[in-house]
Amino acid sequence: MPQFRANAFLQTQLLRPVKTGRIVHAQIFAGPEGTGKMEAAKLVARALNCQGTGEKPCGACRSCLAFWDNASTMLSVIEPSGASIKIGQIRDMISDISLRPDHGVRCVVIDQAEKMTEAAQNALLKTLEEAPPYAAFFLLTSLPEALLPTIRSRCVTLRFPPQGDQAVKNELEKMGADADRAQLLSSLSFGSVGKALELNKDGEYLKICEDTLSAFRLLESKNDIPRVASALLPMRDKCALVLEMLEAAAGELMRGNVKTPLASVLKARGIDGARLMKAVIKASRMRNAHVAGHYVLETLLFDLFDIYDS
Ligand SMILES: [Zn+2]
């Protein structure tokens, strides 16, 4: 089970009711992907079921150990099946929790809760309205607005803020990534440690980052466009990733806070952040209109050179 990474304030807030022996029966954890919502829900579930006498969760009692082995019967996790969470999944869960356990609190985590169909949400609503005293529900979502207002009004909502570049960078360095890589990934993950860790494991992604950087290093003058375009050609099917990197670089240039190697290469070539951003937005639109990847990237290069000439 990964370590809970949300900030200390949030952690205190989450565990306060447990300390006083209170159960919050329905909570929404709202925040971007990778901000520790699942870890937080599991932490509260462990604390609610801990049989230790001191600080909870103790990490040593029978219940805590069962959680560590993913063997606790007190926790169920519902995830989308295909594109959505369907009413059948909610009904199965409701019948499953109708049995009162001998002791402890049955915890139900609904991951990507915004993907519940309306029928599924309505089925859940009845259970939330009359939650069994031995049950706690955690609805995890990056899009709380997509939940029915009736569901939202039944739940206590906790916001999980994005963690910020520096926090992400520190976390990556702790995991052994070198400083350049940590910097690059933190700028690409928009403040989400989870996303950065995922990218860090993705060798293909890192290769695309490196190849994109090498391609832009070739860019000295307008005459280099064909060379840069052919260096980018192998990435034509990964156009979205290249655009994402350029978008992050444009953001750094605009804020005057250049950190990633790509942004410093572009800065050294006199590229203006706002204009790069415009070129990226145009390229993204072309991509969404199913224009071929190599043409999207080539157009972007020409747009950059209009910048040089103006
Ligand atoms: Zn324990």
CATH architectural category of the largest domain: 3-Layer(aba) Sandwich
Structural class: alpha/beta
Radius of gyration: 24 Å
Q: What's the CATH first level of the largest domain?
A: Alpha Beta
N- and C-termini, Cα separation: 54 Å
**Uncertain stretches:** 1-6
Strand content: 5-15%
Could you tell me the CATH topology label of the largest domain: Rossmann fold
Question: How many DSSP E strands?
Answer: 5
Number of domains: 3
Q: H/E order of the elements?
A: HEHHEHEHEHEHHHHHHHHH
Major sheet summary line: 5 strands, parallel
Average pLDDT confidence is: 87
Q: Give the helix proportion (percent range).
A: 55-70%
Distinct ligand kinds: zinc ion
Shape type: elongated
Largest sheet, spatial ordering of strands: 2-3-4-1-5
Q: How would you name the CATH homologous superfamily of the largest domain?
A: P-loop containing nucleotide triphosphate hydrolases
* Number of helical regions: 15
